[in-house]
Amino acid sequence: MKLLDGEKQETYAAPNLARCVRVLCAVLALLLSLSLTKKAGAQGFRFEKAVYTQSSIDKLAESDVVLAERAVHTCRCAVRNEKSTKRSLFNAKRLLVVERELNVPELMIGMSLAAACSESCYNDQAKGDHSFSRSGKHPKAVGILQLWPWVKKHGVDRTDLESSATFWINHIKQVRKKTVKTCRPRTKLLSWRQAWVAGVRAPKKGGRCREIPKHWRHFKKIQKIKEEIDHNHECCGC
């Protein structure tokens, strides 16, 4: 067979075939790299229990330990008996480890503690919102922060405190990037409050710039406790 200019097709077939093979290999390599990146991202987002061990809790500052203890004792449902109190104190410290690991600013330290009290009484195995399921028997909300099933697509293990808390805080951080632009808050604290509301509630036309999360009152109480602890710490010179 000949081409239009009279040249034999075989003259160009081999180079073209080699070129196609190289392009195909390049495309396959790109797809493979994207697949690996996606898997690595999903695996990296899954915060295993081993990441936050007892040694991590032992490294908490004394002021944080005191904050966790006092925060738990302001949550009535968390201290109903000796067993629930012990569990709550342990989980509160774990939550503060996550907050410190994620560099939550000082003015927002204790936000997960406030949410955990309201949502689960510091029970990392809590199950709720049964009425939202079709049968009414299966819980929609699971874990320390009562997260819904949609978070599982992000690699979140809702029964694992660290996984749930890490996602919850990071989600609010991501939402804050948007609410800062839409709500134009006057202060940093206000920007976090707006992001908190938008992050834990369903989207709303016009945003939720003027709303307050249900955990906010308890959070302000925890922040006041933190200020007292920090003040006493400075006075003692410890």
Structural commentary:
The chain is mostly helical and 238 residues long. It has a single domain (55-236), classed as Orthogonal Bundle (Lysozyme). Helix content is 59%, strand content 2%. It is built from 8 helices and 2 strands, in the order αααααββααα. It has helices at 10-45, 54-58, 62-73, 82-101, 111-120, 161-183, 188-200, 216-236, and strands spanning 127-128, 141-142. Strands 1-2 form a two-stranded antiparallel ribbon. Helix 3 packs antiparallel against helix 8 and helix 4 (82-101) crosses helix 6. The longest helix is centred in the first third of the chain and has 36 residues, at 10-45. It is globular. 29% of the residues are buried. Mean pLDDT is 82; it is low at 1-10 and 31-51.
Taken in chain order, the helices and strands follow as HHHHHEEHHH
CATH architecture: Orthogonal Bundle
* Low-pLDDT residue spans: 1-10, 31-51
**In the residues, how many domains can be counted?**
1
Strand order of the largest sheet: 1-2
- CATH class category: Mainly Alpha
For the sheet with most strands, the description reads:
2 strands, antiparallel
Radius of gyration: 26 Å
The number of helical segments is 8
The share of residues in extended strands comes to: under 5%
Topology at a glance:
Elements: H1 10-45, H2 54-58, H3 62-73, H4 82-101, H5 111-120, E1 127-128, E2 141-142, H6 161-183, H7 188-200, H8 216-236
Antiparallel strand pairs: 1-2
Helix pairs in contact: 3-4, 3-8, 4-6, 5-8, 6-7
